[in-house]
Design brief:
By secondary structure, the chain is α/β, with parallel strands linked by helices. The chain has five domains: about 200 residues, 3-Layer(aba) Sandwich (Rossmann fold); about 60 residues, no CATH class; about 180 residues, Rossmann fold (3-Layer(aba) Sandwich); about 60 residues, no CATH class; about 70 residues, Helix Hairpins (Orthogonal Bundle), CATH 1.10.287. The protein is built from 19 helices and 20 strands.
Length: about 600
């Protein structure tokens, strides 16, 4: 069956940069494809070429005649429409259900009566998402569809996209969203597109193996070059005498290449430390907050909420938009006063706040001035002077961008600039409001790693489920009617606790916890059944067998000629390795649960 959409040997030069160099993309009917790559790699540009909105300098684009293609841009325009409903309705094709516009807008938090001229950026994106979904197209090209959506909306969107028959290309920083939807991945790296015919869950292992193989091949080329040059210059005897020096230089070259590969496309991120805060960071007791509604009634946003945060805790706040998360955050950090109850902030707090609206950036500032405060060429990082150009490069900015106005930076670049400002200032308490918006996956990895090593306290509002699972030790979840529950662990832990307990019981238990990594008490069990006992006895042998399988597959994949010689076999081995590693992880987790169960019974 011919593809619905095919891009072949696409090239595009912007200025002196080869943004795309032989990139390819093939989309068959019903295929759900994740398009990934670092910020600035050309993902959005390739999507625009796929949509027919940008012409490539070279290569071919083919779309099946009559195929309906809809494209969601990062910054949509709603000019010329009186209401959001009119805007979405205009996207419907002849014969489409006219009520679908209201259905989609309602599920995305809009009424349809909004004036487009008065919408926020997030509301405009939600209206644009409704418009591209409305006609049930053959091909959907979505650029960051989850930005500005809350968790219920993201989960609704996942279900909507799964139910649609359209072929999808998704650009997203939301790992869980990509894992739940994708069947294949295209990795855009240094202008070229490499394809993995399995979902995003297997992408990172596959990518790392490709990079390892590239590093091995680079080392072999370097060694050959050194050997040939040495032969030409010095002959056999001279080469023998200089063998140790040549070997040392070769090792240096290897190390340099290794570091070059590691730094390629990565942010160097390190948080500057302030003096240690007191043990108690926030103590909120019986706080409540109400606001007047348009109909004259009073709406209680927060009811009798208690929370104690200690130094080193990582607290995530989650819930639908408009339910009171930002209000709660502002009360907790002292920016807003509760109607009842009180909040005490701990001693020696040095707080840094990251605003999701990027309000800390002056659009007319240059990038260098935004970092230095207009103070020349020096930025103080943790109280120590750094050349601003050098510090910029730690966050993937080029020296040429130093005089670039903030207003022309992309969303991802503005996000990185704010992180650079935040991590330069000494702090012991980070307050992050939607920090993952517009970050590429590599930068997100390093943000998670930096927060994991951060010695202070972190309070974060996020809709990114994977980020919450990797970073936070407690979740504060909005549960409606002004109630917030406190759950130990990450987002997945919260879901598990909610399914097993009454939310009020969990909330009461959670508010009494003080240790940042404490887990809920396990339910007592009467006995271990035969099935569990059998698994406890047999899983170690199975895990050992999986270890041997994984070692064999890794050895086969380390053949530097395999990918060029037999790409199909390489992909098959990669898929088998990812499956074996996932099975091993699940078996190890199950064995650990059973071993803890056995210990409880013995106790």
């Amino acid at each position: 069956m011919p593809p619905l959409l095919l891009l072949k040997d696409i090239s595009l030069i912007i200025g002196t940069t080869h943004l795309l160099d032989g990139a390819e993309l093939s989309l068959e009917a019903g295929t759900r494809l994740a398009l990934v790559g670092r910020n600035g790699s050309g993902k959005s540009t390739l999507l625009k070429i796929a949509a027919g909105l940008v012409d490539a300098d070279g290569g071919t684009r083919f779309a099946q005649p009559g195929a309906a293609i809809r494209y969601l841009p990062q910054e949509p325009s709603l000019e010329g429409f009186a209401t959001t409903h009119d805007y979405v309705q205009a996207g419907l094709a002849e014969g489409d259900d006219p009520d679908r516009a209201y259905y989609l807008l309602g599920n995305l938090g809009l009424s349809g009566t909004e004036n487009p001229a008065h919408l926020s950026g997030g509301e405009a994106r939600r209206a644009a998402l409704a418009r591209v979904l409305a006609p049930r197209p053959d091909i959907l090209l979505l650029d960051e569809p989850t930005n500005h959506l809350d968790l219920p909306s993201i989960e609704w969107l996942e279900g909507e996209l799964k139910a649609m028959r359209a072929a999808l290309v998704l650009i997203s920083h939301d790992r869980r969203f990509l894992e739940n939807l994708s069947q294949a991945v295209v990795w855009l790296d240094r202008g070229q597109a490499k394809r993995l015919d399995q979902g995003f869950a297997g992408f990172e292992n596959w990518r790392d193996m490709l990079l390892d193989q590239e590093e091995t091949e680079r080392h072999k080329r370097d060694r050959k070059i050194v050997q040939e040059l040495d032969w030409m210059r010095h002959g056999v005897s001279g080469r023998r005498k200089r063998n140790q020096g040549r070997l040392g230089r070769l090792n240096q070259l290897r190390q340099g290449r290794r570091e070059e590969l590691k730094q390629l496309g990565n942010v160097k991120m390190e948080a500057a430390e302030a003096e240690t805060s007191g043990t108690k960071v926030i103590d909120a007791k019986n706080i409540s907050k109400s606001f007047g509604a348009p109909d004259g009634s009073t709406r209680e946003i927060i009811k009798s909420f208690n929370l104690r945060i200690h130094r080193g805790d990582r607290i995530g706040i989650v819930g639908p938009n408009g339910i009171g998360k930002t209000t709660l955050l502002k009360i907790l950090i002292g920016e807003m006063t509760p109607d009842t109850g009180n909040v005490k902030l701990g001693s020696a707090l040095s707080m840094m706040k990251l605003d999701q609206n990027r309000a800390a950036l002056n659009p007319e500032d240059t990038l260098a001035n935004a970092l230095t405060g207009g103070g020349g060429d020096t930025v103080f990082v943790g109280g120590k002077p750094r050349n601003v150009i050098s510090y910029m490069q730690d966050f993937l900015f080029t020296p040429q961008q130093a005089r670039t106005p903030v207003k022309i930076l992309s969303g991802g670049e503005r996000a990185r600039l704010l992180l650079a400002k935040m991590f330069a200032a000494p702090s012991n308490f980070l307050v992050l409001d939607e920090p993952t918006n517009d970050l590429d996956l590599e930068t997100l990895d390093l943000l998670e790693e930096t927060l994991g090593e951060y010695p202070g306290t972190v309070l974060v509002v996020s809709h990114d489920r994977d980020f919450l699972d990797r970073v936070v030790t407690q979740v504060v979840a909005a549960e409606g009617d002004g109630q917030f529950g406190v759950y130990a662990g990450g987002y997945s832990d919260m879901l598990n606790q909610r399914s097993g307990k009454n939310p009020a019981e969990v909330r009461k238990a959670g508010q009494s916890k003080s240790a940042p990594k404490e887990r809920p008490a396990r339910a007592k069990v009467a006995k271990m059944n035969f099935s569990d006992q059998h698994l406890l006895n047999t899983l170690p042998g199975k895990i050992e067998g999986l270890n041997k399988t994984i070692e064999k597959l890794q050895a086969d994949l380390h053949d530097p000629t395999l990918y060029a010689r037999d790409p199909k076999k390489f992909a098959d081995l990669s898929a088998r390795l990812a499956e074996a590693q996932a099975t091993k992880a699940a078996d190890e987790e199950r064995w650990l649960e059973l071993e803890m169960k056995r210990e409880e019974l013995e106790a």
